[in-house]
Design goal:
The structure holds 2 protein chains of 2 kinds. By secondary structure, chain A is of the alpha/beta class. Chain A has helices at 16-22, 26-38, 66-77, 81-84, 94-104, 116-130, 136-155, 165-176, 192-202, 216-225, 236-239, 259-268, 300-338, 341-366, 372-398, 406-416, and strands spanning 5-10, 42-50, 53-60, 89-92, 184-188, 208-213, 229-232, 245-248, 274-278, 295-299. Classes of the chains: A alpha/beta, B mainly alpha.
Chain lengths: 425, 278
């Protein structure tokens, strides 16, 4: 019975310096797969490496061969074993499958639910297939893994909630404005928080950035950084005419924008929508502005509330996702067990006997004149034909050895005779 | 080709509208694209069947099927379906399908319940180019305004969540306020333009039949009232920034008045439009 083993290190077990040293480039992966392919002890293998993890999934011919893989990493990455051995995890059989499924479904990611991991692993699998490193077991395992990842993404909300404040603010902006690249942003205050929010916004390609600060020099510096325009703090009210999103983070103790100011600005801008993100404490933007039509004000507490409810939601979705994954692991283990010789032969015999019984019954229904002995004779003959037909295939399956890959033939047998029918694909 | 065949095709159409409504409601909760796509295809097929049914009827009786209230509702539903397909194609606002399919099914149900088999008294004045132009424009216009109302409802749902800082059920399901407002505005301007032409052709038709443009028929009065209201809304929108929430509320009210004009006025107030709305 083949064993599935997974060795690796990820962001939870290894610091970034070590992960960098352990990471494989695509060329290194190809070279590594070739090396492992030549090794008689390793039947199938797959290497995947991202900035947060390096993992090797393999099936040994016999035993577990963990040390061999550790030696391989040390040799291939030119790094001393003592340096990384304590950061490695080794999962075997059901644990390995569980871990793989979790990784593919993005439950093991640094940011749970991030969508890139599936593509990265698909790429790694493609490389393994192109280099003839994967076989019956890994092919099936990886297909199941991709299926479960797809199911988790589709049926749980794990990937669709903003869990950081700046991300939540941008999600909101996207539900207010249809195209952020046509919108201008004004920063009030040149603090660190403002910078962070703008970096997020810039990745969404806003049209124009204006920075207003009490100390004009700081405004100029920040504006330079983001390729924007600096204005005097007193000009902020005029700027309301042209901007759409206002991010405020000044240290002022009073409101820097009041309801009357915004009301007047609204007229000048033909009541086009304004979105205020107030991340200052104490607040910069008068909350009453939210009552003006087409103006929306979110302060830091509002954003925190949204983030918290999203985190809570994500926690619930994780539990659901884990249930799907565990189900998939159980199913896969069942398939692996069935891949043994005895169950396959038994399933084959059962199937043939069922067919014989069914066909005899059908025939006898129309041949009522036959005596009991005649019926017995016919049944014996039918049974004999059937048994003889599958005799050679069974003999072939029993006759193991010859350094051949049993799981391959067992898999073919199961597929040819459709023995996995009740389990589905 | 007989009236019965037309009736059977119309029943099939209603069943198709019903299934697509069920699909859209599933989509509302489940958000699986396959539901939306299937439902959209079903509406397209249903509209085609609806058209076939009207053609069969016209061929069998030599009259367009707008002789009584049941038939004119059916024509209204047909135009609603067409305009929905057009706007869905243009904006891909998937949730509008929920509104449209429910409305379509409700109208069709009313069509089938309202004594569809009753013998129709043919009226020879309901013919001619101006008559058909009037009908076509008014119905297409009303359908666009109905969809403007749908977009308005969706806008209010999304706006309420964002304004009250409680992004709930609809937050993820609906697109941005900008887009919703834009859809509403396009439906509104399209509907208004069609309605304007519809009224003008109606006046010309009245002139050819009764010899005068205007005769204080209640439906005429209401229609012009509706036209004035939408004209005011467009004016306010362009010159006083009545966008977003206010615009959405007015389009919803406007559609309710259209509904009353379509059904209520004839039942309660009489007038010569009554002829084909009994």
């Amino acid at each position: 019975m083949p064993k599935i083993i997974l060795i690796g290190a990820n962001h939870k077990t290894a610091p970034v310096e070590l992960r960098e040293k352990l990471s494989f480039s695509i060329e290194e992966i190809i070279a590594g797969l070739e090396l492992l392919n030549q090794d008689k002890d390793i039947k199938e293998c797959l290497i995947f490496s991202t900035c947060n993890r390096t993992e090797i999934l393999y099936i040994p011919e016999t035993g577990e061969k963990v040390d061999k893989i550790i030696d391989f990493i040390s040799y291939h990455k030119n790094i001393d074993i003592s340096e990384f051995k304590s950061s490695l995890y080794v999962y075997k059989e059901d644990e390995a499958i569980l871990h793989l499924f979790k990784v593919v479904s993005s439950l093991d990611s640094m940011v749970v639910g991030e969508p890139q991991i599936l593509g990265q692993i698909k790429q790694a699998y493609r490389t393994a297939v192109e280099n003839n490193a994967s076989g019956v077991m890994l092919n099936r395992l990886m297909h199941k893994a991709f299926n479960i990842a797809k199911k988790v993404r589709k049926e749980t909300g794990i990937g669709d909630n903003a869990v950081s404040i700046s991300y939540a603010a941008i999600e909101l902006a996207k539900k207010i404005f249809s195209d952020l690249s046509q919108k201008s942003v004004m920063l009030l205050g040149a603090g660190e928080m403002a910078e962070l929010a703008v970096e997020h916004l810039l990745s969404n390609n806003v049209k124009h950035i204006i920075v207003a600060n009490r100390t004009f020099k700081n405004a100029v510096d920040l504006a330079d950084k983001f390729n924007g325009q600096a204005i005097k703090f007193e000009e902020r009210e005029d700027a309301l005419k042209t901007v759409d999103i206002i991010i405020s983070s000044t240290g002022a103790t009073d409101y820097v924008l009041t309801e009357t100011q915004v009301k007047q600005a609204m007229k000048k801008r033909h009541h086009n929508t304004l979105f205020f993100i107030d991340i200052a404490v104490p607040r910069d933007i008068d909350p009453k502005i939210n009552t003006i039509s087409n103006a929306y004000v979110y302060d830091i507490d509002d954003l925190k509330n949204i983030v918290e409810s999203n985190i809570e939601q994500r926690g619930k979705e994780t539990i659901k996702a884990e249930r799907y994954i565990e189900e998939a692991v159980v199913k896969f283990l069942k398939w692996m067990e069935s891949l043994a010789i005895i169950p396959t032969i038994k399933a084959l015999n059962d199937k043939i006997s069922t067919i014989v019984d069914m066909e005899c019954k059908k025939t006898f229904l129309n041949l009522k004149h036959l005596s009991q002995e005649d019926r017995e004779a016919i049944r014996r003959m039918t049974q004999a034909i059937a048994t003889r037909t599958i005799h050679d295939p069974i003999l072939f399956l029993r006759n193991t050895g010859d350094h051949r890959d049993d799981s391959l033939y067992l898999n073919v047998t199961r597929q040819l005779f459709n023995l996995d029918l009740p389990e589905g694909k | 080709m007989s009236v019965q065949t037309a009736q059977i095709v119309l029943q099939i159409t209603t069943v198709l509208y019903f299934i697509s409504m069920a699909g859209y409601i599933l989509f509302l909760f489940n958000q699986k694209k396959i539901y939306q796509k299937t439902s959209f295809c079903l509406i397209s097929i249903a509209v085609a069947f609806h058209f076939i049914s009207m053609v069969i009827y016209t061929m069998a009786t030599r009259y367009a099927p707008i002789q009584n209230l049941s038939q004119s509702l059916s024509v209204a539903a047909f135009f609603l379906g067409c305009m929905f397909l057009f706007f869905q194609y243009k904006f891909d606002l998937k949730m509008l399908g929920v509104f449209a399919s429910v409305l379509l099914f409700v109208i069709m149900l009313a069509v089938l319940i309202m004594v569809p088999d009753a013998q129709v008294k043919q009226n020879d004045i309901l013919k001619g180019f101006w008559f058909y132009a009037h009908i076509f424009m008014v119905f297409a216009g009303d359908a666009s305004l109905a969809l403007a109302c749908g977009a308005g409802i969706l806008y209010l749902l999304q706006e309420k969540g964002i304004k009250t800082k409680n992004p709930g059920f609809f937050f993820k399901r609906l697109p941005s306020l900008d887009l919703l407002d834009n859809v509403g505005y396009t439906c509104l301007t399209t509907g208004f333009a069609l309605l304007t032409i519809g009224l003008v052709t109606g006046f010309i038709y009245a002139k050819t039949i009764w010899g005068r443009f205007w005769s204080w028929d209640p439906k005429e009065v209401f229609s012009v009232g509706i036209w004035l209201m939408y004209a005011a809304l467009l004016h306010l929108r362009i010159y006083s920034g009545w966008r977003g929430r206010k615009s959405a509320i007015v389009t919803i009210i406007g559609f309710l008045i259209i509904l009353f004009t379509f059904i209520g006025v004839n039942m309660l107030l009489g007038g010569y439009h009554q002829a084909f709305t009994k």
